[in-house]
Amino acid sequence: MAATVQSILQEYFEPFAAKHPLSLEQRLAAERLRDCRTPALGGHVVGCPEGHVRTVCCNSCRHRNCPLCSAFAREKWLAADR
Ligand SMILES: [Zn+2]
Fold first, then answer.
1. 39 contact partners, CB below 8 Å, separation of at least 6
2. Looking at the whole model, is its pTM more than 0.90?
3. Separation of 54 CA from ligand 1 center, angstroms?
């Protein structure tokens, strides 16, 4: 499996942060990217209006630098006619 920004943060952020001083903004950004779409950020129920399908999805972090959250906008931008 390929490494992602999130998988790297999940494995190495806490040991890194323990050794290196980070600003509050840096810590919060790294934590949001690490926790994006995991139970750490909570979840919501998604389903069809008729109630046939219902599932629980984990919340996104919505951080401007998150590769997971910006994926749709990136694909939309790439697919747009220019
Ligand atoms: Zn995100």
1. 58
2. no
3. 22
